[in-house]
Design a protein that fits this description.
CATH topology of the largest domain: Rossmann fold
Mean pLDDT: 84
Number of strands: 10
Radius of gyration: 35 Å
Number of helices: 8
Shape: extended
Number of domains: 2
Length: 361
Amino acid sequence: EKIALASLRHAYESQSDTAFILDTVAQLWLAGIEMDWSAFSAQYTHHRLPLPTYPFQRQRYWVDPPNESAAISTSASTEQNVVQKKPDIADWFSIPTWTRRSLPEIGPNENSGSCLVFTDHQGLADILVKRLSHEGCSTIVVNVGTTFSKQSLDTDPGSHLTYTINPQKSSDYEELIDDLLSQNLLVKKIIHCWSLNDAPTSLPDGNLPDNDSDLSDDDLGFYSLLFLVQTLSSRNIKDAVDINVITQHLYNVVGTEELKPRKSLVLGPCRAIPVEYPQFSCRSIDVMLSPSHENNSQLIDQLMAELNHPVVEDAIAYRGTYRWVQTCESVQLPEPTTIKSVLKKRGIYLMAQFLFQGDVA
């Protein structure tokens, strides 16, 4: 086999002459031609580059297989946890339903750490703050406002550390958490009542938030929880935090509720937060408030009992004297009824369609 190589590049080639001739020399060497490398490199000056020495430190990263008894135990437990496919497709479906259920028999939470309360305009959060303080829980109040501000504690024993933030500004949530961390205040429980406010609404001082637009349910619910959890995560909060989102007009439990579907956006963060951040537990508690606070005394007792228990169920509703929990119930779908087609096999039909010009096709 013979090879023919050019020593000059073509006029239309963009490669430099030096690179082209060096490539030709390399191809000749690959073809077995003996090269005079001394003459080839006579015009170059070579220097030895010393490299630092290092010891070869071998470290084993292989995963050792389990022993035989452990392997058998793991295999048995895996078989028990495998989800079996149901052979009948009619058994694959379920629907959300509500079940009356009392509080689980679990010991109440300890009142260690601080409780961060996002207050509503109807006064429910204020009553909860008083009850929590009476039980010895350190409470921190967060109100809706236009800009971030902090109200210092006064000499009144019933006073609380109070902040005001704009729900639409993520920077206000960052200032809030940073200020709490600077005071070594460890938040263990969050009670979020902003979704109780009816939106659209103006700020308590009569002003409007950014862009001269009213606060929406998204700002008071969805984005508020989103900004809050993002801030907690960015500050490397690794301790367990219970997030309680109190709402109304959200769940259709007994069929007589006045529902506001836009408020259901808050359920997105409620269900996603524990999945994305395992150290945070979250539950939504839907209530029906009475215009008179005297008629809400029973509801306050129910909420206090709920808040003093760890998060077990993620969707809870209080209707009258009963506590309801959302569950999934299996439902078997019936076979669809056969609808007789109006078209006949091998039938002849005229298809008419009016076009833009009024023509018939």
